């Protein structure tokens, strides 16, 4: 399937990426197969410093495999990737020191306390005299830092995972489904932290199948389906390109409520809206646009589940 990319950024030569430090992540024709299954099939994209790129697709689309390649857990079968100008290889200590990773699967030490988990991870990074309390406070776990992690709820463990990914003040963050299955309060806490890290200047690759979350957080989104990127652009650009500009009007007439959708590109749209506004039974009037999920279905013929 042919991808729809936003200009030449996603397809520049590898040699350019090594000299352009604004591109914290640069990926060129990256591929990984599991036997005959093409988990990732020749994808190209980049993420700038301070940018959140939403990497969107259903389960099994290739999102997690991509992150595992970029964090040196899997060796690509083809293609090239650069993190902060350094080629990604199987053993990349220079890269590991400057990235933070949060996977959907929890791999905390459950018999350690929250504070001990963060201190242990700080030691792995060679950070001395590390104080875990500010990070625990930031993720809303200040009062539970001395509790063993096995007593934590799913949301608390996920917040601790986010805190752990920030221990080394990373320049690049890889977040794999960071809010999946969380309660609204925990999810909001994590989304706020993601925004703060981008404002600090970190490049963030956010994989998710939550299109609303991606729309809220991302400067650009990449749709991945069956291992291939099928679209890459700003959410607003995708909505304008693939959606229909319209207004939904609800009017009460007698005992009935009538609803009408007025396409703004129709020749009589102005007159129809003027008539609706002047109607005493007008209840609501609001603009409508395509959702990212609608666009994804339009491009791939499948939903996110």
Q: What structural category arises from helix and sheet content?
A: alpha/beta
Q: Please state the average pLDDT score.
A: 87
Number of helices: 11
The CATH class label of the domain at 7-98 and 170-240 is: Alpha Beta
Radius of gyration: 23 Å
Instruction: Give helix % range.
Output: 25-40%
**Spatial sequence of strands, sheet with the most strands:** 6-7-8-3-9-10
Count of DSSP E strands? 13
What is the helix/strand order? HEEEHEEHEHHHEHEHEEHEEHEH
Question: What is the global morphology?
Answer: globular
N→C terminal distance: 20 Å
In the CATH hierarchy, the third-tier topology of the domain at 7-98 and 170-240 is known as Rossmann fold
- In terms of DSSP E residues, the strand content is 25-35%
Give the full name of the CATH homologous superfamily of the domain at 7-98 and 170-240.
P-loop containing nucleotide triphosphate hydrolases
Largest sheet: 6 strands, mixed
Low-confidence stretches: 1-19
The CATH architecture category of the domain at 7-98 and 170-240 equals 3-Layer(aba) Sandwich
What would you note in describing this structure?
31% of the residues lie in helices and 29% in strands. It is globular and about 70 Å long. β7, α7 (184-200) and β8 form a beta-alpha-beta unit. The longest helix has 17 residues, at 184-200. The chain has a six-stranded mixed beta sheet with strand order 6-7-8-3-9-10, with helices on both faces. Strands 2-1-4-5 form a four-stranded antiparallel beta sheet, covered by helices on one side. A three-stranded antiparallel beta sheet has the order 12-11-13, with helices on one face. Among the domains are: 7-98 and 170-240, Rossmann fold, CATH 3.40.50; 244-288. It is built from eleven helices and 13 strands. The chain has helices at 14-17, 63-70, 93-96, 114-124, 133-138, 154-165, 184-200, 211-217, 235-242, 269-277, 292-300, and strands spanning 23-34, 37-48, 52-56, 78-83, 86-87, 99-102, 172-176, 203-208, 220-225, 228-233, 246-253, 256-263, 282-288. It has 305 residues and is α/β, with parallel strands linked by helices.
